[in-house]
UniProtKB/TrEMBL annotation:
PANTHER family: BETA-LACTAMASE-RELATED DOMAIN-CONTAINING PROTEIN, D-ALANYL-D-ALANINE-CARBOXYPEPTIDASE/ENDOPEPTIDASE AMPH
Protein name: Beta-lactamase-related domain-containing protein
Domain Beta-lactamase-related: 43-397
Signal peptide: 1-22
InterPro entries assigned to the protein according to its UniProt record, in alphabetical order: AmpC-like, Beta-lactam-related, Beta-lactam/transpept-like
A Pfam family of this chain: Beta-lactamase
Record key words, sorted: Signal
Transmembrane domains' residue ranges: none
């Protein structure tokens, strides 16, 4: 895309932003909102971030704003209510759908999934009978719905070669190498035995699973014995929802989750961009997202040089994401969803027992320095105050949708939250000592960053945790609530 022609335009735009805060900021949070504005403006003006933020204190939305551009090419400013792809945040909604069916008696989350699968949907000779690779003598394994939702089913992650984390990447010498997705076809074709195009929005969860051919693959491990982040768990859950209700996953979400919860800016779409049914697409950021590249000059910290689009595959929604990652939303609707989930679960047909089960810490996430657990469709971090924080980052096409939600256990309606939806990720070289910093475009000073912000990854660095951590500090969000 070349060096952004509007650096001067950027500086003028952000100078205007600093003139005043939005009138909706409560007076008692004006100081914090001003500090947050200065912090975010500095990052955005220096091309380190782009996106929308929202902050909730004691159950009240106290600050929100958009930074950067929804379209770099068309100079469309980002607003706080722009809609983004929210990637794996979709899993939370899918987990709720399964628990709704549990509450209705259509399934039990402790049931083996095997009995809910029609062998004919996947060309199986008989009931689904997955066996653990290298331990075939153990016979047919029976992963439960709960194990699907907590990522411990053992199902092979064909679309994510390392159970979600790069430190366990697969190689051609691994037995599971032949099961990876190594060829793509934009039509169903022979991969699914169906007809039509992946981009018209009609692909079912069964189509997706047939395309990936994982119903004929062995398991990585015995169900319940390990943790492995795998989108197929939730694609399979989506298949069961469609089969038991005789509804598309789209229609099920609309009727039983999105409409009851009044999430008017949230939708599920598995087709091509611009091919959505009339009225569904509105105020969506330009797709895909962006990277900004920083380069080291003769002196000083690396400086911004160029902005580019993220490479993407449009059929990702239908062939890979599905019930694991094909939803769109804005920061306000995602916040509304968490608030309703914690305070009015009956609106979406859930009992308090289901809420407790869905948010119970189950599988420790194997990331150094992270003391968080995968629950069921959401991540939970126990806090030193004996409380807990719900959190998730969903990513697709260069977009990152991140939420941190501090649950006030004595009064959930007074919970705190910070949300950051990002559409721009920086590519920054670290210095010889591993330190990470860039040159500010505001005043040429040096902006020091966390080491994780420096990366040579073509997708750029994830800045969401950096942003939400600082905003939580600015607004004094700690998760320490009085029990009075």
């Amino acid at each position: 895309m070349g060096n952004h022609a509007g650096v001067v335009r950027l500086m003028v735009a952000y100078a205007l932003l600093e003139i005043a805060l939005t009138a909706s900021v409560p007076a008692n949070y004006a100081k914090e909102a001003n500090a947050a504005l200065q912090f975010m403006t500095g990052l955005a003006e220096s091309r380190l971030i782009g996106g929308a933020v929202a902050v909730q204190k004691a159950g009240q939305l106290v600050w929100s704003k958009g930074f950067g551009y929804a379209s770099e090419e068309l100079d469309v400013p980002l607003e706080d209510d722009h809609i983004y792809p929210i990637g794996s945040n979709t899993k939370f909604y899918t987990a709720v759908a399964i628990y709704q069916l549990h509450e209705k008696g259509l399934l039990n989350v402790s049931d083996a999934v095997n009995g809910y699968i029609d062998p004919a949907d996947f060309g199986l000779d008989g009931p689904w009978c997955p066996k653990v690779h290298g331990q075939e003598e153990l016979g047919c394994q029976e992963p439960t719905f709960k194990q699907l939702l907590q990522m411990s089913s053992g199902i092979l992650p064909s679309d994510n070669m390392a159970c979600g984390y790069p430190n366990t990447s697969w190689t051609p010498s691994d037995w599971l190498w032949p099961y990876r997705m190594n060829a793509l076809n934009t039509t169903y074709g022979d991969a699914s035995g169906a007809t039509g195009n992946w981009l018209d929005g009609t692909a079912s969860a069964a189509d997706l699973l047939r395309f990936q051919e994982l119903m004929k693959a062995p398991l990585l491990f015995a169900p319940g014995s390990q943790y492995c982040y795998c989108n197929t768990n939730f694609n399979l859950a989506g298949y069961v929802v469609e089969r038991l209700t005789n509804m598309t996953f789209t229609n099920y979400l609309n009727e039983f989750i999105l409409k009851p919860a009044n999430l008017t800016n949230t939708y599920y779409w598995i087709g091509g961009q611009g091919m959505e049914p009339l009225g569904i697409r509105k105020h969506v950021v330009s797709i895909p997202g962006y990277t900004t590249t920083f380069k080291q000059g003769a002196s000083g910290a690396p400086a911004f040089t160029v902005v580019n689009r993220i490479p993407w595959l449009e059929m990702d929604l239908s062939a890979f994401a599905g019930a694991a990652g094909a939803m769109f939303s804005d920061t306000f609707d995602l916040l509304k969803w968490y608030n309703l989930f914690m305070t009015q679960p009956e609106v979406i047909g859930l009992s308090k027992e289901s809420i407790a089960a869905l948010t119970q810490p189950l599988e420790r996430i194997p990331i150094p320095g992270l003391s968080a657990f995968f629950a069921q469709g959401v991540v939970v971090e126990p806090l030193s105050s004996k409380g807990k924080k719900l959190l998730y980052t969903g990513g697709i096409w260069g977009f990152l949708a991140h939420i941190e939600y501090w649950v006030n256990s004595s009064d959930p309606s007074k919970s705190d939250a910070v949300i950051f939806f990002s559409n721009l990720n920086p590519i920054i070289p670290a210095d010889s000592n591993g330190a990470c910093a860039v040159q500010s475009l505001q005043n040429s000073s040096t902006i020091s960053l966390e080491a994780s912000a420096c990366t040579d990854s073509p997708g750029g660095a994830d800045m969401t945790n950096y942003v939400t951590t600082h905003l939580a500090q600015i607004f004094n969000i700690t998760g320490n609530y009085s029990s009075s």
